[in-house]
Amino acid sequence: MSNEPIDLQTALAGFDDLWSPRIVTRINDYDVRIAKVAGEHVWHAHDDTDEFFLVLDGELRISLREGGAERVVTLPTGSVYVVPRGVEHRPSSSDGASILMFEPTGTSSVGDRHDEVPDHVDATTGHTL
Q1: What are phi and psi of 63, to 5 degrees?
Q2: d(Cα 56, Cα 74) in Å, to the nearest integer?
Q3: For the structural domain made of 8-119, what CATH number should be given?
Q4: Of 55, 66, 68, 59, residue with least CA distance to 101
Q5: Burial level of 124, CB count in 10 A (0-12/13-18/19+)?
Q6: Where are the beta strands (DSSP E) in the chain?
Q7: Pairing state of beta strands 69-75 and 60-66?
């Protein structure tokens, strides 16, 4: 990790892969990850951790399954949302978005429980910049 400030726009310009988070830095036992997204991710859940999303650019939709019902949270640029631990969710973006996430180091991008992972989704614990 760098001891220098990190420009997020420059970091995002350094890769093109979708749904393939990059670790920008770490704080305590958490990764700060950025990703470019478009289309749909996979339905998944993180059993032991909440998941923080900040939309840096574009619009992100997060479909949620909780209590036997489904709903969609729409996040425009600058919005934040936390998916509570254990809640099934599927992020998506029609026109593409750039996002920042906080997750415990080692957390899988497809959670602990998930549907079949499509080819366009990178099942990873994050890649270094």
Answers
A1: -80, 135
A2: 14
A3: 2.60.120.10
A4: 55
A5: middle
A6: 22-27, 30-40, 44-45, 51-58, 60-66, 69-75, 80-83, 88-104, 113-114, 127-128
A7: antiparallel
Q: Which pLDDT tens digit goes with each residue over 68-122?
A: 999 999 999 999 999 999 999 999 999 999 999 999 999 999 989 888 898 999 9
- Fill in the DSSP letter of residue 121: S
Residues in Cβ contact with 9 at an 8 Å cutoff, skipping those fewer than 6 apart: none
**DSSP track, 34-50:** EEEEEEE---EE-SS--
Domain definitions of the chain by residue range: 8-119
Q: If we measure between CA atoms, which residue out of 121, 125, 108, 114 comes closest to residue 44?
A: 114
- Count the neighbouring beta carbons within 10 Å of the beta carbon of residue 65: 14
Per-residue pLDDT at 1 exceeds 70: no
Place of tokens 């840096």: 56
Q: How far apart are CA 74 and CA 20, in angstroms?
A: 21
